[in-house]
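It is worth pausing here to work through a concrete case rather than discussing structure prediction in the abstract. The textbook approach is simple: state the sequence, then state the predicted structure, then interpret. We follow exactly that order.
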Amino acid sequence: MHCISIFNLKTVMYKIVSLLILSTIALSCKSAKISKTITKTVSSNFYDNQFTGIMIIDPETADTVYQYQAEKYFIPASNTKIATLFSALTLLKDSVPAFYYQKKADTLVIQGIGNPTFLHPYFKDSTALRWAKNYKHVKIIESSFADDKFGPGWAWEDYDTYYSPERTAFPMYGNVASISNSSQLEVSPKYFKDSVFQKTKKISRAYNTNIFYYDTTKTRAVEIPIVFDSLTSQNLWKHILPGKISFSKSRFTEEPNIAYSIPSDSLYKRMMYESDNFLAEQMLIMASSNITDTLNTALVRNYMLDNYLTDLKQKPRWVDGSGLSRYNLFSPLSFVQILSKLYATIPRERLLNFFPVGGGSGTLKSWYGGNPEPYIYAKSGTVGNNYCLSGFLLTKSGKILIFSFMNNHYKTPTAENKTRMQQIFEYVRDTY
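Step two, the predicted structure:
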């Protein structure tokens, strides 16, 4: 019986090894077929006058399914938010840090920590306001905020556009004025009700003043960035809590506590689904509080590159959290490496939930539909003449692949690039 058991075991092991070998050969053949087909596609005349890079890997086998100029640098646009997501998941807790605080008898002392959800039009977090209502006096310490209100390389003419709010240490209302005109003119925050005028020019706000312009013949809701200096902050706080608020440049007398607000995952998902630049920037500000007393996004980016992303084959030029800046430079390989780190540490269901779904949600709602099952979970990045997409691809064989597909400096319509990308994704889905 003993000899028979050993014999049977050897037979089983032989079959397992044989199956593994056959499986490896099959995957190798599939990769070769995919490589030949995609290379033929990107060698067409369409790609002659643009820069394109592609990286696709199988994270289970660590095999490269396809690569094309994957180690070259590209302008990533909002694909940068993948690095921001990785940083937030690494440095922040399960709940969003709302503010620093100390309690002193009838006085609450608070200081901003970069939390973007406070009175935000979507999140409507009122943690700081609820706390403040319970005290006779509220002293707000002006934070040591080292960043400029706009990131390096941001387009100056976007100052009045919804996607370019200013960065601040203690945001309020998403740092935007929300204006609509369904039955009557509605303005939030109400403090700016008398600062909204009939729109006669293209701009939506005076250049460096909180004078807003809205077309009252329309009903469409708009969001216009606020000029958020210290005086604006004081006026907004005093408007919602008259007689209670004072401001100070002094420091806490002892180590402050941190109050928390909403679950962090809801913030991450919103940032990724809507490609929200403001949320992305503020997430890095909050993350910086874990490594320094001064809120500084450059410090947190360098900290991540020096400690958690040291193995990236091409060190990125990473200058902001949102990807608004054309100074950012990442390679497709770098994004695949960052996504691989996320895939290795975050449960699959939770991880995919952060990413827009092809044909289903967020910025991918109109593209990469699965018909019927979704197969693309990814972050897009779009800035004039550049379009990138990085994330996860589910094959019909049940595999999950990690990819980054980056296109720069084209003059053809972005939709044409997306159409060709979709054809490649569908081929990989059906073949691998």
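Step three, interpretation. The chain has ten helices and 15 strands. The first strand starts at residue 51 and ends at 58.
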